[in-house]
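@channel sequence for tomorrow's demo:
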Amino acid sequence: MEAVRPFARVPKMSVRSLTDDRMEFVLSQTDTSVANALRRTMIAEVATIAVDLVEMETNSSALNDEFIAHRLGLVPLLSSAVGQMELARDTDAEDDEWPAGVPFELHVKNTGDQPLDVTSRDLVNKGQNDLQRSVVPVDNANSSSAGILIAKLGRNQEIKLRCIARKGIGKDHAKWNPTATVVYQFKPTININDALVATLSLREKQAYIESWTAKPDRPVVRLNQQTGAIDVVDAEAYNYDEEEKLWAEENGKAGLAEVVQSQDTFIFTVESTGVLPPEVIVLSAIDSLEAKLSGLVNSMNMWGNNVVQ
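structure tokens (generated this afternoon):
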């Protein structure tokens, strides 16, 4: 069987913007299957750290033990040390020693008359080394943050527990999902029919432009005051609602514009929960995909001499 490499596409990626928790990039020279695989891998296959085991000693709050354990699991934890840990599924559930897990304790009692908030800031890291102690709730670095609410305590109510944070992936539980959102859109190309636009009155042109629903402060098209033509300003602001197409058809001007979705260029937006930087999420997803494909190639080659190259 001949290698297919000479005929394969070579995907390219260009970063448009990058902040602490958000990344926008363009994936090109590929197809929808690859874009979908990358998106789903970022959500389900990138490992993070989250509370997994909870031992409740005292709980006199209004919430039962299971509710509190679930809320603890959804507290995002900084996961820069995740590469030095083993997956929870690969370790003994009773083993709370590093690298299997990071121990935490929480003990809060309301001795006052007013309701008392129990938040992520009440989680105390009991790690034995710097790597363990680096695993803390993501909002701890923000001194103005009150923390993520876990429960409210009435007078004389108390919560005392210990828990273990472990490494896992979103495929096993959503608490290990590192992303707040991962979306992509097809890059649009908008072709305006200038000849048909020329038959519109000024009022009709303005009404047609208004029919192009756009993102706030990002118009899709605008009127060229010098030529009277309609120019495309920001094709990517188009949201594919086809309102402009409906307006044209209702006013007997069908074909004023054609919107074509590029089938090989995708605009990605990745927002992190804060547990990992967005660029790390993207690179980790690519590494995961590469590892899976390499494993497949090795398995195929076991049945012949370089069946896949």
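heads up for whoever presents: The longest strand covers residues 257-272.
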